[in-house]
Amino acid sequence: MKNYFVLAAALMLFAVSASAQKFFTKSGKIEFDATTSSSPEKIEGVNKTATCVLDSKSGALQFSVLMKGFAFERALMEEHFNENYVESNKFPRAEFKGTVANNDAVNYTKDGTYNVTVKGKLTLHGVTKDVETTGKLTVQGGKISATASFPVLLADYDVTIPGLVADKVAKTAKIGVTCALEPLKN
Amino acid sequence: MKRKKIIIYTVLVLLVAGAVAGFYIYKEYNRKHKDTADLKPDFTAPATQLLGEFGKDEKESNTKYLGKVLQVDGLVKDIVKDDNGFYTIVVGDTASMSSVRCSLDSVHNGQGATVNKGAAIAVKGICSGYNADEMLGSDLILNRAVIEKN
Fold it and tell me: Which ipTM value was assigned to this complex?
């Protein structure tokens, strides 16, 4: 009798994890790195409060990041980032809306690491552009960890770097994404 | 003779000005973030009230609160610890999907271990904005947060 109960519970648990279609996090990590070979020090900020939603059925992928949430080691650098570069008062949020282009290649019910191509639109500093990048989805025990890294040409998003520091800041920033996605229970 | 004196004084004044400017730039460049614990809140309000304001008019609320020091009162809905051991305290009404998510300042991160679910709390942090989301529930984000009352 006890065994049946355990079995039933296990089956129910399996059913829940298998039927989970949407995965999400509210504490995704986004890293911004504009260090160049002539930079006197590292120019990097980290945001740990990104929201990300992935629909495993359609492959739809969304990110929302608050620009003021980027923390830099130097207070001055953080202020410049917010006030002069991304103008976070005017444009508080960056968003990505896209899809996992090869979603069929990912088996969300089987543990493993899958290489994916992500395509979509990135809105930053009020400018929307098409972006495409490769990344990795690792499925483990019903949870997904997603990582990607892609370049962003700052000029594409009308982010201007003052002449005085133009050679100290990379024209293309590296964006790193690390998210641990959990199944969304409805 | 007089001309020589003028030149010497000019050079001296320039040197002093240069040293002052240099010192200022050095100080500015190395300036650390202020500890939120030492900052006086610009606004103190219940979590539910702030979420209501942002839900009604995000743009206006951003103008009012973005980058400001907020002290939020409410009940602890959840305590989230990330892979690196950093705490996020989720404050709000359990009946509502919306919350104020407070990422604790790394210096004060230890406070996170003392928080209990369901307890009344006051958290102070820098308002970094609002994420409206119907499916996941909307969030107001506070960064560099410290716990004021627990």
Answer: 0.84
